[in-house]
Specification:
The protein is 82% helix and 0% strand. With 159 residues, it is mainly alpha-helical.
Length: 159
């Protein structure tokens, strides 16, 4: 298999993996209460217990607030759909990799600042930051390989 074909296969694999990650991340926002119920059953954590209690009280008194989590899921699904363009034509849609990298970088200050304002423990904010860090890895490779593919298509040497 020539280098361009190898890069294209790698790009499709990592793009697909990124799409799957976005989809699964969004899907986990919908059954939030049952997920936390399950976690609280198996893990003894002061923070998790507090979150569990808050979700139970919110469900009992203000269930409509979970609609925000439904919209969070929807946002993940829509962004995942956008990345199908990168999956199909990574050169023409290379901007999606740039967009994703910028979003991944912005996850970190967002989690640290707004998590702090909302009283989220620092260690949990680091968990949130990890989504930006781990999400940027496949995007960085995809961007790099898309540039290489574009240069190969133009007959330019890789730099």
């Amino acid at each position: 298999m020539d280098r361009s074909r190898t890069l294209f296969v790698r790009l499709r694999f990592l793009s697909g993996l990124f799409i799957l990650g976005l989809f699964l991340s969004g899907a986990t926002a919908i059954p939030l209460q049952s997920e936390v119920d399950c976690l609280a059953k198996y893990f003894d954590s002061g923070w998790l217990s507090r979150v569990h209690t808050a979700l139970d009280q919110t469900q009992a008194q203000y269930a409509f607030l979970f609609y925000g989590a439904d919209w969070l899921a929807f946002g993940h699904f829509v962004i995942a759909i956008a990345y199908v363009g990168a999956l199909l034509d990574p050169i023409r849609n290379r901007w999606l990799f740039d967009f994703g990298l910028i979003a991944c970088v912005l996850v970190i200050p967002h989690a640290l600042i707004f998590g702090g304002l909302r009283g989220i423990p620092f260690w949990w904010r680091l968990v949130d930051c990890s989504f930006g860090i781990f999400g940027s890895i496949p995007l960085w490779f995809c961007r790099k390989w898309a540039i290489e593919l574009e240069q190969a298509a133009k007959g330019q040497p890789n730099s």
